[in-house]
Design a protein that fits this description.
2 domains; elongated; mainly alpha
Length: 93
């Protein structure tokens, strides 16, 4: 699955690396998906290069960072809601 381009390649990575034409075929009509500012710099062969054996690696992020991110994104909205809540209840009295 490729969420960046909304594409699905129904093969495993080893099979794809052995036959990169699978990627060329899967991404051949992607020009309409590339952002305008990428059209001069990104094309199907750039995607094929990502799947080659050399230099291919898995990105790893600590789960603790992801947990922190899910919590941290709510801190500012909550801090903005607290003063309104106090003001709202103060006016009701």
């Amino acid at each position: 699955m490729d969420p960046d381009y909304g594409n699905h390649v129904p093969y495993g990575i080893k099979h794809i690396q052995a036959n990169l034409d699978i990627i060329r075929e899967s991404y051949k009509n992607q020009d309409s998906v590339y952002s305008d500012h990428y059209k001069d710099h990104r094309h199907t062969e750039d995607i094929v290069d990502l799947y080659e054996k050399d230099g291919n690696h898995i990105y790893y992020m600590e789960k603790s960072f992801e947990d922190f991110s899910y919590t941290a994104k709510w801190i500012l909205p909550i801090l903005l809601i607290i003063p309104y809540t106090f003001t709202f209840f103060k006016k009701k009295r």
